[in-house]
Structures are given as C-alpha cells and as structure tokens.
Amino acid sequence: MSLAASKRPTSRLLFLYPPFVQGTVPAARRHESSARRTTKRLRVKPDPSFIPSTLTNQLQENVIFNPPSSSPSSYQTPAAFLPPSDPRRSLLVRSHEHDNPYAQPNKRLPPPIQKPVEKRYHLKEDEIAEIRLLRQKDPDTWTRKKLAQKFDCSEFFVSMICEASQERKQKQQLALDDIKARWGKRRTYAREDRQKRRILWARDE
User: Fold this and answer.
1) What is the DSSP string of 64-81?
2) What angle do CA 164, 166, 169 make, to 5 degrees?
3) 3-state secondary structure of 106
4) CA 83/CA 97 separation, integer angstroms
5) Among the listed residues 149, 147, 168, the one whose alpha carbon sits nearest the alpha carbon of residue 158
6) What is the mean pLDDT of each run of 10 residues along the chain (205 residues)?
7) How far apart are CA 139 and CA 133, in angstroms?
8) Using CA atoms, how far apart are residues 61 and 169, in angstroms rounded to an integer?
9) Looking at residue 28, what DSSP letter applies?
10) I want to staple 162 with a disulfide (CB 3.0 to 4.6 A). Which of 8, 18, 25, 132 is the partner?
C-alpha cells in the first residue's frame, strides 16, 4: 500500500516511516485561535441575584429564591415568596389538604394489616416468682418460649422478670463460638460489617 493510495493522513501512518523519523512527525495541536473559541462558549454570565452588590444600602441579609429553569408550578413556589393577593396561595392550601386524607376527624381509617394486641397484666406475684424459680432451676428445659406458653405471656416479659444463669450464658456463648468457627470469609466479613452499621446507626451517622 502506497502513501498516495491511502486516504488517512500521513501523520497517523507512523509504521511506514523509519525509526529515526517517527519522533519528528508533527502531531495535532490546539492553537490559540481554536482554544479561544472553545473557552468563549463556556463564559456564561452568572445570575444577577448571585452577584454581591457593592452598594452600602443593599448589604443586608436576605433569602434568595432562584429556582432552576423549568415550567412554573404553584406547588413548588413557597408561600413566603407569593404576594398576599396571589391566587396561587389558594392552590397551595388545597394541595396540603390532599397530603393526608385521613387527618379529617370523620374519615374512616383503612383496616389494620395485623390484629392489634392488647396488653394484659394478669400475672400475679406468686406466678412471677414461679417463673423465676423454674428458670433458675432448669433453664435448658424451661426456656423463655415454654415459660411464655405456660403462663400465657410474651417471651419479652419473661426476659424482663428473670435472667438466665451465668452457666447458661457461657454454654450458649460456646455454642455460638462453635458456629462462628465454621463460617467462611464472606459470612464473617458480612457479620462484621453488620456490627459496624449498627454502631453507626446508634451514633446517627
């Protein structure tokens, strides 16, 4: 293939030149004239409301409302920036009525997803003492679930009135450590990341 038959510029066909000429082939450059045209198009003047005024009578703190260039909407303009006689104020009030249709006193609420549970305080002092005694005597047999079923209460209430012994806690911890020892790297990293997220949630971060 000859240089005359090629339609590509000769500066791109470096493999046709000798090694000592390849470094001297001129490359494409941006000159001052083309750079000036490019930067001139990027020179966009800022909005006048964002330019600080040099007059002493206008140096005061105020709120600047400069929405983006889009179609105007009465639901986006704050009421503080609307004149008292502006008809958009009534539209803004009507829009707030549709925010929560169940805020009206005579409005019927939708049915609950789950059946509401009423709190009961039916256990007496002797029954609470019996729960503590069974839990302390044989914690392996009388677990929180079995005690909750026997005395018709919640497992959370059982954990409030009685606590497992130290031997029971150590046994549960050993069983948990045995399970964690069989975890892989992926599960171990996921659980550590979960603990970090919980700490950040508690710090509100």
Assistant:
1) -----SS---TTTS-GGG
2) 70
3) coil
4) 21
5) 147
6) 51 55 54 66 66 54 68 66 82 66 68 83 91 88 91 90 85 91 92 91 79
7) 10
8) 62
9) P
10) 132
